[in-house]
């Protein structure tokens, strides 16, 4: 162009400063736009005869890129507030999944780790797909993990919108955001047809499949995919035009058999992310939860018109250690903040004498459901309904959604489509016109409509209510959806069955469901939901036997696992706290010596997570034997300041402690 006298030296310099070919093309076009028809004609002749790639960029790719940017800006710019999203602009850089992340339910992960990861490195969002050093290469496969409600999809929206505005990663020509919810609606696809269906304005998908334009493919929400990914039996496919099963398509893309030149970014809950072999992942990041200041800001945003209420809610959250840890997750903080705010707004001095601030999970969700199913909903005020009418509507909605929630949970299904709604007899018109729409959210896309519960725990609470109600009259095992099983009569038999199933489940996905089921038998929850979803005082018929069933699960030698700790949580939900209180009192008085039976050891393992006594220092001086120490190892890992003096430990115990300190999950910082 300089030889043709179409650019001055200064203009050529400006073009060369652009970081990529498309950026250089735009710079050239901008410069020549003011030089008349001769300049543009000369440019076209020059490009057509000397540089076919440049010609393609100007005539084909550039218009597609512009259309793509406009579409993404319009779609992702709606309702994205950048203020509360500062937390998402810096991700934790992790070396892989820890043992607890691969095996445990999201909530158990947060409780065990106190919502903190032992990670010192972080990476800014704008450098997520760049090399970490001058001698490394950009990652091809990146995985970002985070528990339910932490903000994975919000992170994707923030990235896509920021990129589409031209603020980050200008070297990437196409960012293609897809969700596994969307992929669930297809049976077979080719790589090119996937791009054409999801982005109709990309008329030349072969420019992406052939690697002519740098592309980032985003696959959001692996945990919502209907088919587990099987990398060991992947049928290899290298033809971007060949249609194959969608799960095979995804594994071939991740393996690099298809779209080899594209970068791929997968987001997922931790347990589902373990489906991708570690050797295929070039970079793993994790979304961190709220810090103290962010939690305060979040609650202030929730109660913008009432800062006093925001302060009271925060005070109650901070006063409850386990609740405070859970509220580091924005989705859970929203539910807890809403419930406590609803309680404080609607309780008088007189009613506060009979009902306490919600503290257990079941109490928090009972208030949340009562608020969501009544006319007192913060976002959509409605005419006040008579309490009887509201209660009847609630029973219909919860009845229809509860079965969907329960069997969805058993099948690890968290996203539902119209065929699912029909299969479970859910009247969509009733759902849309009622308060049930506050529990089950709707996402409409061009080719499908998806429904999903506003948080995983909402699905689990609904599932527990369905099971509780159905168990009182069921004559067959409710875990067998077809109804074909040995007869099982009586609520307590069904309760015992649910507890046993949760203890046997390898994936731990029933743990919180069983906590909620136990909580529905507590006097406080019955008081809250009687007349709405429960019958007044009916818990009295089952509560003491249910407590015995749960306590029976603790009488197992000195083998303490997260299952045992979850059983203690169940006893807390049912409001049977005697064992825990006895052990906690002994901890305060430093008189644990001689009283650590298997049951008391279970209580101690639970207290290491939730008790304020262990907050500053976990003092287990002069009370541990080899068996007790061995049984508590998995819980001691997460004590930051651990005191073990005067225990007369021998070499075998020291070997145990040595192995504990070398585990990836270990968060011990100070040991005496």
TrEMBL record:
Keyword terms, alphabetized: ATP-binding, Cell membrane, Cytoplasm, Immunity, Innate immunity, Leucine-rich repeat, Lipoprotein, Membrane, Nucleotide-binding, Palmitate, Repeat
SUPFAM superfamilies: DEATH domain (SSF47986)
Localization of this protein: Cell membrane; Cytoplasm
GO biological process, one term: regulation of apoptotic process
Domain (NACHT) ranges: 140-272
Membrane in keyword set: yes
GO cellular component, one term: cytoplasm
Domain CARD per the UniProt entry, residue ranges: 1-62
Domain of life, source organism: Eukaryota
The keyword Cell division appears for this protein: no
Matches recorded under InterPro entries: CARD, DEATH-like_dom_sf, LRR_dom_sf, NACHT-assoc, NACHT_NTPase, NLR, NLRP_HD2, NOD1/2_WH
GO MF annotations, alphabetized: ATP binding
UniProt protein name: NLRC3 protein
Organism: Glareola pratincola (Collared pratincole)
